[in-house]
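User: quick one, fold this
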Amino acid sequence: MKKIRKSLLICVAFMSMLVLCSCNPQLTLNPKYAYSSFELNLGEEISTNIGDYVNFDELTEEEADFVRDNTEILYDGEEMAGESFAETGDHTLTINYCGHKYRDYKIKITDNEPPTFLKCKDVYSFVGLDLDSTAVDMMFDARDNSGKCKLKIRKKDVNTDKEGEYTVKAVATDPSGNKAEAEAKIVIQKPRYGAPGTYVFVDVAKQTLTYFVDGKVKLETPVVTGNAYGHGTPKGTYRLNNKTRNQKLVGREDNGDEYESFVYYWMAFIGNSYGLHDATWRATFGGNIYQGNGSHGCVNMPIAKAGELYEMIEIGTPVIIY
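Assistant:
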């Protein structure tokens, strides 16, 4: 008789475990998740906490712990690592309980939010100077909640030989086809000291070099330009085309002798023949030095100032010799 009772108790316990693990605890869904499909905007969050889906008020504490320990939430068949959906389209969210499917939700992710422009920067250039394509490409910057954004810049023909303002339009498009538009301008101006924009201005008469950033003086220093009698620095508007460290400059004196000068900072603006560079062989700069003891055409700078400019200036920056 005792053996029969013991067998019955074991059987009852086994049946209880079967019922508990059969994924049929008669759970009640919270009203918010009673539907089988959802439409969400890209970036909108959805909970990965089973307690948000199931009404735990009807469960004991022990049953609630059991539900949490035996539940997994899958997104398109993979366990969800976070709460934000990263891609638009149709997706499936599945709740498994005790190794069996408990609930499927069809989720449609849409993106109705257009990109946002973070930068719309005007570009200033000078008459007679070709436009820097890199500077034009960097006039605009846009971001989108999808993480992907195509940027197309539309500009009218710009006459670089004449002063004027030209409107540049940009269109940013995300993968869902949402678009945003922005405008900036390209300004072609005469070369002058203090003009808007970023450039180097060398005043031969005053023997000074000034580096402007967005129209404000960033660096100023006395210099020595080309010898006024035979090796003058070519006046005009150029672009910095190269910069390098530890360069040997080789040339010929008027008498035909070769010379070689080592410079720590080389910033070329006409080919690789004319540039801005340090001149450690000089003790002083500025004044009338260039009239009798000038360079062979380059712009000599104190080494500290040449180093400062080298670190700041970018390839393509206008260099005005006036």
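User: anything notable?
Assistant: Confidence is low (pLDDT under 50) at residues 1-23.
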